[in-house]
C-alpha cells in the first residue's frame, strides 16, 4: 500500500485556510485601492499587497444576494467558483513568482450557470490577471 504523500501530485490541489482572503482590513483596502476587470460572469478585483502567508495569493468569492435570493443557489455558485479556482490556481501561482496578491472573485451573472462556463471564465480571468500584472511590471521598469 502506498503512502498518501506518494499518490498526490507535486502541488496540492486543496484550498487551504491560508489561501482564503479573510482579513477585513485587506478586503477594505482591496476595494478602496484595488483594480478590477470583468470576464463574464466573473468580476475580478485584485491588489498587490503583502500577505501574512507563504502562498502567493489569497482569494475570496462572492455572489450577489440581489441576483440570487435563495442561499442554496448562492452557495452552489460559490462552490463552483472555489472549485474552478482550486483546480486552476497552480499555473497562476507559478506565473506570479514572488509577488503576493489579494484577489476577490464576484459572480455578476443573473442566472445559474454550469461548471464549464464558470471554469472557462476563471481560466480567462487568471490569464488576464497575470498579463495585467506583467504589463504593470513592465510599465514600472520603463
TrEMBL record:
One GO-annotated biological process of the protein: tRNA 5'-leader removal
EC number(s) from the headed UniProt entry: 3.1.26.5
Record-linked InterPro entries: Ribosomal_Su5_D2-typ_SF (IPR020568), Ribsml_uS5_D2-typ_fold_subgr (IPR014721), RNase_P (IPR000100), RNase_P_CS (IPR020539)
Keyword set includes RNA-binding: yes
Reaction(s) catalysed (UniProt annotation): Endonucleolytic cleavage of RNA, removing 5'-extranucleotides from tRNA precursor
A Gene Ontology molecular function term of the record: ribonuclease P activity
Signal peptide per UniProt: none
Keywords: Endonuclease, Hydrolase, Nuclease, RNA-binding, tRNA processing
Class of enzymatic activity (EC top level): hydrolase
UniProt GO cellular component terms: ribonuclease P complex
SUPFAM superfamilies linked to this entry: Ribosomal protein S5 domain 2-like
Record-linked PANTHER family: RIBONUCLEASE P PROTEIN COMPONENT
Description of how the protein assembles with itself and partners: Consists of a catalytic RNA component (M1 or rnpB) and a protein subunit.
NCBIfam families assigned to the protein according to its UniProt record, in alphabetical order: rnpA (TIGR00188)
Matches recorded under HAMAP family: RNase_P
Family: Belongs to the RnpA family.
Function: RNaseP catalyzes the removal of the 5'-leader sequence from pre-tRNA to produce the mature 5'-terminus. It can also cleave other RNA substrates such as 4.5S RNA. The protein component plays an auxiliary but essential role in vivo by binding to the 5'-leader sequence and broadening the substrate specificity of the ribozyme.
Name of the protein: Ribonuclease P protein component
Protein source organism: Maribellus luteus
Amino acid at each position: 500500500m502506498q503512502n498518501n504523500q506518494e499518490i498526490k501530485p507535486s502541488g496540492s490541489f486543496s484550498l487551504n485556510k491560508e489561501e482564503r482572503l479573510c482579513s477585513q482590513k485587506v478586503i477594505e483596502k482591496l476595494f478602496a485601492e484595488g483594480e478590477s476587470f470583468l470576464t463574464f460572469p466573473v468580476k475580478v478585483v485584485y491588489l498587490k499587497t503583502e500577505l501574512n502567508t507563504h502562498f502567493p495569493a489569497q482569494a475570496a468569492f462572492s455572489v450577489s444576494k440581489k441576483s440570487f435570493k435563495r442561499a442554496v443557489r448562492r452557495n452552489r455558485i460559490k462552490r463552483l467558483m472555489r472549485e474552478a479556482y482550486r483546480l486552476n490556481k497552480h499555473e497562476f501561482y507559478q506565473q506570479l513568482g514572488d509577488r503576493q496578491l489579494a484577489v476577490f472573485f464576484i459572480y455578476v451573472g443573473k442566472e445559474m450557470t454550469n461548471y464549464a462556463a464558470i471554469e472557462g471564465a476563471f481560466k480567462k480571468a487568471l490569464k488576464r490577471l497575470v498579463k495585467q500584472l506583467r504589463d504593470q511590471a513592465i510599465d514600472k521598469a520603463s
